[in-house]
Each structure stands twice: as C-alpha cells, then as structure tokens.
Amino acid sequence: MKAVAVQRGETEPTLINIPQPTPNDGEVLVRTLRVGIDGTDHEVISGPHGGYPEGADYQILGHEAVGVVVDPTTTKFSEGDLVVRTVRRPPESGSTLYFDRDEPDMAPGGDYVERGIVGAHGYMSEYFTSPERFLVPVPESLAVYGFLVEPISNAEKAIEHAFAARSDFEWTPESGFVLGNGPLGLLALAILEQDRGVYGRFDRTYCLGRRDEPDLTIDIIRRLGSTYVDSRETPLTEMPGVHEPVDFVFEATGYARHVFETVDTLAPNGVAVLLGISEDWSFGIDGGRLHREMVLENKALIGSVNSHVDHFEAAKESLSAFPHWFIDDLITGVHAPEEASRAFETGDDIIKTVVEFDTL
Amino acid sequence: MKAVAVQRGETEPTLINIPQPTPNDGEVLVRTLRVGIDGTDHEVISGPHGGYPEGADYQILGHEAVGVVVDPTTTKFSEGDLVVRTVRRPPESGSTLYFDRDEPDMAPGGDYVERGIVGAHGYMSEYFTSPERFLVPVPESLAVYGFLVEPISNAEKAIEHAFAARSDFEWTPESGFVLGNGPLGLLALAILEQDRGVYGRFDRTYCLGRRDEPDLTIDIIRRLGSTYVDSRETPLTEMPGVHEPVDFVFEATGYARHVFETVDTLAPNGVAVLLGISEDWSFGIDGGRLHREMVLENKALIGSVNSHVDHFEAAKESLSAFPHWFIDDLITGVHAPEEASRAFETGDDIIKTVVEFDTL
After folding, report:
1. Average pLDDT for residues B67-90, to the nearest whole number?
2. In chain A, which residues have pLDDT < 70?
3. Does an H or E element contain A249, and which?
4. Which burial class, exposed, middle or buried, applies to B311 when counting CB atoms under 10 A from its CB (0-12, 13-18, 19+)?
5. Parallel, antiparallel, or unpaired for β B2-7 and B13-17?
6. Beta strand pairing call for A27-36 and A64-71
7. From A294, which residue of chain B is nearest by alpha-carbon distance?
8. pLDDT band for position B200 (50/70/90)?
9. What is the SS3 assignment for A268-301?
10. What residues contact residue A118 under an 8 Å CB cut-off, 6+ apart?
C-alpha cells in the first residue's frame, strides 16, 4: 500500500510502498480517508520535535487521520464505522500508568510514543491498524473534516486546563487572545468564538500574527468576529494599552519570548496556556518584575500538550458547531498521496492542507 | 492608646500615642491581644511593598492580629468573642466587585487597600475597629497563637489554587518542596506535613534554605519530618538529580530566579505556586528550553497573593492541628509595644516575633 514517509537523513516527504498491516484480535483495520498536516509534521521532518521508530530508517508521517473501519476483528466497532484516532501509545518499556488512567496526554516523556511524531509510524498510509481504545467514533457528517478532531482536541484540553486553574474563585473572563494565526491558533479562536455552555463565550477575542493585508488568515480572524493584532505594530507588552489586558491567552506560536511577555498582556487573575514547542533560546528578562506581577495579580502560566479521548469528544462537538465557511476557508489544499510534497509546502496562501487517500 | 508605627522618612518602628477609635454601627471595637510580624512588615518599612494611608505622615504597622471584642455595636458578635481579621479593605474609590463576592484577595491593584501594608493603618495598637464582615471568630484555644491564622491563610489559598490548577486530571502528588525557611515557608511546610482530607498528605517534603547548621529552622524542618535542602550545595536545577523532581513547589523566598529554575525542579505535571514579592531584577534565562519543558511536561506556574474568609477557616483548622512544639519553636520572641523595635530585629536566631498588647 501507499504511504507518505520521511527517510532518515532527508527533509522532504516521499511516497513509499509497504505491506498492508494485518490487525490482531482487539485491533481494528482502518481504511484511511484523509490525514491533515500541521506544524508538528513540519517539526518532525526538520525541527525540535519527533524521532524515528526504533530501528526504522523511515517514519510514516501524519497524526490527524479520519478513516473507515474495514475489519473490526473482536472489537465493538462495525465495518463501515467512521473513526478518528488518538496519537499516544504505550512505550515498549516504561510505565503505562497514564494509559491505564485513560490520560496518556499526561504521561511524561519516555512513557509514550506518538504515532507520526515520536517513535512510532503515523497514519499517512492507505490502511492502518489500531487497538480499539485509541479509536474515537465520529458521525458520517465528519467524513470529510474529521481529521480536524485531533488538532481541535489539543485546544480543548488546553482550554480545560486553563479554566481549571481559575476554578477556585469566581472567574468571569471576557477577553481571549490567541497568539498565532496558524491552523491551531485559528481553530482555538473558533472555539473561543463559540457560544458553549461550559465556558460561555468570550465577549472580545484577538488573534496575533505578523502578516500584511490582504491575507487569508486575517480575513478568517475578522469573519470569526475577532480582532487581528499585528505583532510588528503591537508587541504583546503593549497589548493592554492599545487594546486591553486580556483574561485568557492561548499561545500557539512556539516563540518563547511570548511566554514571558504574556505576563504583561494578561489582566489580573488571567491565565495563559502554552502549546508551542520552542527550540533552545537564551535571552534576558526582568524576572523580578514578572515574578512580582504574577504574585500580586494572581496570574497563571500553564503548559499543555496532547489530549485524551474526553477532549476528542469535546472536539467533535466544537467541529460540528463551527460555521461551514470557516472550515472551507481553513483548508487551502487537498492533495493525493502522490503529490504529498506539495501538501507540505508552506506560504502565506497556505493555511492547512490534507492528504486524501480515499473518500467515503 | 499605644500604637506601633513607622513615620514617613524613617525605617524603624516607633511607639506613638493616638486616640482610641470609636466604632460605628455595624463595626466592632476590638482589644488587641497579639500582632505577629512577618516579611511583609519588613518590606513595608523599607522594601518593594506597601504605602502610607492617604495624607498620613505615619502608618500603623501589623496585619496579623488576634483580639477580643469589647464593643460589638449592632453586629452578630458578643463582648468577649475572640476574633482575627482579614487584611484587604475596599478602596476610597474604585470597584468593590471583589469585596461584594467575598473574594477581596482576587481584587486587582488599585481596587483595595491593605491594613498595615498598603494605604491603610494596621492593627498594631491597643484597640482597633473593623466592619463585622472582615472579622473571623476563633476559639479561645487560639487566644495566644491566633495571629498565625492570617499568614497560614495565605498558604491555604496558594495551595488551593495550585491543586485547582491540577484538577482536570488525576493528580497524585507525592513530593512537596517549600522554597524558603522563613515563617511563611515553615507554616506552609507544616500544612504539607499534615494529614488533611482534601489534599491527603505528601509522602516526602523538602524545604530550601541557605543556613549553616546548627540552625533553629533546620531543626524544625527535620522535626516536621521534612528534608532540608541547602541552596548553596543543591541549586534548584539540581534538585531532581540530588533528591527527586517534585510534584509541588511552594515559593516563599521573593528570589525571582527561583521562579524560572523551578521549571526544572518540577516533575512532569507539577505545579509551582509563587508567593514571594521580588524587586525589579533583569537576568538571562534559556527561555526556549523552559517554554518547551512547560509544554511537553504539562507544568504550571501560579501566582498567589492574600486570602479570603474561606482560607481563614481552613487556616484555623490547620493551626489547631499543628503540633504544639512546632508553634513554640516558631515563635522566637514576644515583645511589649514599648520594645517594638526589638520585635523587628532579624537574625539567624529569630524566626517569628510577636508584639503582645494584652492577654485574655
């Protein structure tokens, strides 16, 4: 079967041919429909993130997949069920505590592999197998865009953790600020613009980028009802003066200075949740002032990575509620596996791309 | 009546004579028994914290008081009731939202004054008045040590906020690390060593200091069942290798580098709560690595200041459960108002001092 992989020593994806996998009992054979590409995939190819499966000289890419059950073996699934899958898997050796708790997103480094990212093959192939517990059923209405459930689930987890961190007092956030206008940032912004029971809705949202107009992402930001903030004109530290101090920050840039600048961006009692993956980078800060500000104004910084099945369920709900135009505008390219290298191109006219193996 | 105050332009407390206050209806007149002194009082006299009441050329010190109701006026209190009081009061102008919510500890700067700290006189006088809602009744068993309810309440709030920040997953912390062996640090350590229903009990605790043995605080740390960590031998960043990465950090040093070093001290999914008040101080950090570490290991940093009535209630419970030897060893000096300057002395043989105005 066809698969899209990166070979050791190379920095471009290539199409390879490998045997179709056979499911064991308790596993499900899935026919892949679509696999989304995000910043992590680019980092896996050439960045601070990721690692080949042990002993392999290539890694199959992709961790955002939607597919159809072909062979359910002994599982609860039926042939034809539509599914998406979680990313983390138990390690060859090490603790499985967090998997036993169904919270693999909280497992420490070394106690997991991540399919398509660290130490395990991904889903960018015509078929893949998965244990039952790592598959989440989705309705047929998500056959085309279901691959978005995985990235949305990461935002759902991060937002949940941020709200939990403010749950010991009466927190009534009005303003939310997404740092980064990449796919994850835009998906998070769409969540903040939703009118959801649990979180209510932010009265005012902002999204940070560094693009000139006209620009596809700025159009989306505005159409969502949000305000675009150009970091070249309005550094984070000036956000309170130019717009307002914000109650909630969702960091999705991987730009480490933002972590520390965001203390000034936050309103009293505010929380910033961090999702970007930075490379090593030393710089100076006024650590004394930041410390004092965090204490005297009860501010919080929360790191968040990955997600588990509950967050996938929340993500299904969000995705189903997103306006259709938003998803249409977000997906800027659908590519056959044979043209995978095109799917990995970047540019100001590209937001999110997909490799399509098949349709329902 | 006698009062201990700091005069504008001076950096030593002095005894002054001022008229005894008269309570209005809804206020309570309290005869002061004891007022504790902590790091904040020293900062008020000569540090980064505090400010005189508007128009006053002196500030009465003290924010940790226990006293007896002398005149309850129209309130629910009765003559002879023992009370402690909270610190924050509504400002002359500004929002009273957080006072209306009974969460004044979450009010932003400018929306409160703090008796004995910022913009209002403290309690270090023979009598003081207070609105009913800012007084917390305590049992007669706390007549001597009830002034400790206020500092303990700050630790209770901080610990609550930290646990809330980890409430969205199954967090089972085993190790706690208090940074700082001052009075607040030791009180926090005693809380962590308690077997309390809500938090369980930490299996292993550590307390950071920079003292040579023999030392009073190191003796207390050991007798509490905790391990002393000398920061000159074991910097925070080496804590995981020398002892272990810790699930929970309670920062009570006001040393800003600790905020950033603590990211390395924390175990995966760990949380650090920050209470120290730093002065401006610029230094370099590997911000990229810290950012990545916080994200990939789900770590959290939480600032926390002050407390409200619920935390005072929790503090009463903790204080009542503390071993008697601990309190005895913690209080290294009880001084009459006339010798207040002695109560403000510092040194390695001094942990916590008290000004005693009267006894029950």
Report:
1. 97
2. 47-50, 196-200
3. strand A246-251
4. buried
5. antiparallel
6. antiparallel
7. B303
8. low
9. EEEEEEECCCCCCCEEEEEHHHHHHHHHHCCCEE
10. A49, A50, A51, A112
Q: How many CB pairs below 8 Å do chains A and B form together?
A: 194
Q: So what's the ipTM on this one?
A: 0.97
Backbone angles phi, psi at B135, to 5 degrees: -110, 135
Q: How far is CA A43 from the centre of its chain?
A: 13
A positions 180-199 inside 8 Å of B (CB): none
**Domain residues of chain A, as ranges?**
2-137+323-356, 152-303
pLDDT at position A197: 55
**pTM of the complete model beyond 0.95:** yes
In CATH, A2-137+323-356 is 3.30.420.40: no
Q: Is the pLDDT of residue B241 over 80?
A: yes
The CATH fold of domain A152-303: Rossmann fold (3.40.50)
Mean pLDDT of B133-145: 97
Tokens 């910097």 correspond to B235
Within an 8 Å CB–CB cutoff, is residue A300 touching chain B? Answer: yes
Split at pLDDT 50, 70, 90, the class of B120 is very high
pLDDT, mean of residues B268-295: 97
- Cβ contact, residue pair B277, A289, below 8 Å: no
Residue of B nearest to A100 (CA): B170
Residue A347: Cβ-neighbour burial (10 angstroms; 0-12, 13-18, 19+): exposed
